[in-house]
Each structure stands twice: as C-alpha cells, then as structure tokens.
Amino acid sequence: MFHPNYPPVLSLMFRNEAGLKIFDEWIKRYGTDDVGNEIGIRIIKGIDSEHPYWYRIGIGANSFFPNDKAKKNCVVINPCRMHTMQPNSDKNVGFFEQIQSKSGDYIICPSIIRDGIDSPEEHLEKQILKHAGSLRILNAYELKQTDVLAVESIIPTDKPFIPPGYENCDLVDILNHRKSAGKG
C-alpha cells in the first residue's frame, strides 16, 4: 500500500500480527532509521508481457556483487520475500515512484488486513525511515546480475517484456539459468 506523504510511505501488508513482529525485529536490529540501507526493496516492473502493469516487490538484504570476478568466485545466499502485484494500471506504483524520486527517503511500516474489515490496519508506530539506495524501481530488462536482491526476485515462469535492443540483457541469462537449474 502506498501513501503520497512526504516522505512517501510503503506499507507492507500482512494477514496477522506476524508482520508486526517482523518490524519489531527490524527495529531492534536496524533502528527506526535504517541509515545503512540494510533492508533492500526492489520493485520490478514488466515481469509479464501479457499483463503490462504487473510488478514484483522483493524485500531482503540490500546486497550487490562488487564485480563479475567476485560473483564467479563466491556463493551468496540472500533470502528474500517477494510478492507479485497484479494491478490493472500503473497509477499507484507510478505515483509512488514519482514522489519517492523527489524525496529520496521513504518510510516502510506494516499493515494488517483483517477478515471482514475493508481498510487495512496501518501501524505507523512501527515505521522505519529508509534512504535512497535501499530502493530500486526498475523494468525487468534493466536488471543487472550484480543486484542480488533483484536477481532473487525473478522466477523461471516470468514472461517479461523485453523491448527491441535488449534481447541480450542480463535478464535473459538469469531466466535461462533459472530454467535450466529448475529453480522456482
């Protein structure tokens, strides 16, 4: 859920209090101001060419390979949580992207969706201030293999939109590797 505040709010939705506990642990570990950008968020657009407004949110460690040589000589385990959003327009994500790009900073907080209640129960008291560098909003074909969180947010069944001129992008290699490895 997005809020057009300044800085904007990205509220992560949960079905129960487990989300509140996750934020309690993050606040213990990183504080209410994640100055080290430890928690990374990726919003990857264009993951399904048949559904142009669908996007995926990946949340995990904000990690990057420093270069290709390091990538080939190490094993990285970076658990992430991801969710595919299936909106009928790009209005909300576009609005959030516009405001966040001006602000640089943004806030994350948990919300709980309760059965039988129309509006999510937002918990701004558990907010964490995030900074530029912890969030990347990109098209799938722009993804780079050095962005571990973005790579982990791609699944073999994705049918991304790849425009002319991007047929050799990193995404193609990532999908081919995932399909051949049977990752899903």
The SSE order reads: EEHEEHEHEEEEHH
Backbone structural class: alpha+beta
Mean of residue pLDDT values: 86
Main beta sheet, described? 5 strands, mixed
What's the shape? globular
Number of strands: 9
List the quaternary state of the chains: single chain
The percent of residues in helical segments reads 25-40%
Integer-rounded radius of gyration: 17 Å
Describe the structure.
This protein is α+β, with helices and mostly antiparallel strands. It has one domain (2-181). The protein is built from five helices and nine strands, in the order ββαββαβαββββαα. It has helices at residues 18-30, 68-72, 91-103, 148-152, 170-181, and strands at residues 2-3, 9-14, 39-45, 55-61, 80-85, 106-112, 121-122, 128-130, 135-139. Strands 1, 2, 6, 7 and 8 form a five-stranded mixed sheet that branches. Strands 5-4-3-9 form a four-stranded mixed sheet. A hairpin with a 5-residue loop joins strand 1 (2-3) and strand 2. The chain is globular and about 45 Å long. 23% of the residues are buried.
List the helices and strands and how they pair.
Elements: E1 2-3, E2 9-14, H1 18-30, E3 39-45, E4 55-61, H2 68-72, E5 80-85, H3 91-103, E6 106-112, E7 121-122, E8 128-130, E9 135-139, H4 148-152, H5 170-181
Parallel strand pairs: 2-6, 3-9
Antiparallel strand pairs: 1-2, 3-4, 4-5, 6-7, 6-8
Keywords:
alpha+beta, 5 helices, 9 strands
